[in-house]
Amino acid sequence: MTRSLPILAALAFSLVLGGCGNRSIGNKIDDQFLGPDVSTAIERAHADLTSPTSHIGVTSYNGVVLLAGQTPRAELKEKAEQAARSVQGVKKVHNELQVLQPTSALARSNDALMTTKIKTQMLADASVPSTRIKVVTENGIVYLLGLVNQKEAASATGVVQGVSGVQKIVKLFQYTN
């Protein structure tokens, strides 16, 4: 019973958020499992993808998968993408892996802080549907995923532009209009 408690809590949390946004509860639950499934497929694709020479973050939203991070060789970048595409439920893969040595712990901390600042400002801005936008920051590059219309995308992008330290903004939105 104690093992199923976290699963029930996650399901309850998903149901509470069900009213937020225009995605179905099923899509939200699928995304919760899709990221770990993709990560597992990448781990199995090549040992160097899980070694300290690579840092790969996997994010999914509505079946769209973002691979962000660093890997030392172009062949590994391609293997990671192939592995991600092989997972059932993946509709599209955005392979934004950089062929570089992994970022430092300090750079990752700065990225996490930047993501927090962006999300906080999005929550404060009524024109941004923050519950329908995922923000991922990797090496100063901000990736925006979500199901939005053009006006909402522009508002979200405007918020990100106002945050110091942002090197680049990559919009990976699915547009509703």
Biggest sheet statistics: 4 strands, mixed
User: Judging by the overall fold, what is the CATH architecture of the largest domain?
Assistant: 2-Layer Sandwich
**Percent of residues in helical segments?**
40-55%
Count the domains: 2
Query: Would you list the SSEs in sequence order as H and E?
Result: HHEEHEHEEHEE
Our count of helices gives 5
* Residues in β-strands, percent: 15-25%
CATH fold naming of the largest domain: Histidine-containing Protein, Chain: A
Sequence stretches where pLDDT stays below 50 over 5 or more residues: 8-20
Distance between the termini: 45 Å
Query: What CATH first level of the largest domain would be assigned?
Result: Alpha Beta
Pfam families: BON
InterPro entries: BON_dom, Lipoprotein_DolP, Transpt-assoc_nodulatn_dom_bac
Protein name: BON domain-containing protein
Keywords: Signal
Describe this protein's structure.
The chain has 177 residues and is an alpha/beta fold. It folds into two domains: 20-99, Histidine-containing Protein, Chain: A (2-Layer Sandwich), CATH 3.30.1340.30; 105-175, Histidine-containing Protein, Chain: A (2-Layer Sandwich). It contains five helices and seven strands. Strands 4, 5, 6 and 7 form a four-stranded mixed β-sheet that branches. It has a three-stranded mixed β-sheet with strand order 1-2-3. β5 (141-148), α5 and β6 form a beta-alpha-beta unit. It is globular and about 45 Å long. Residues 8-20 have low confidence and may be disordered.
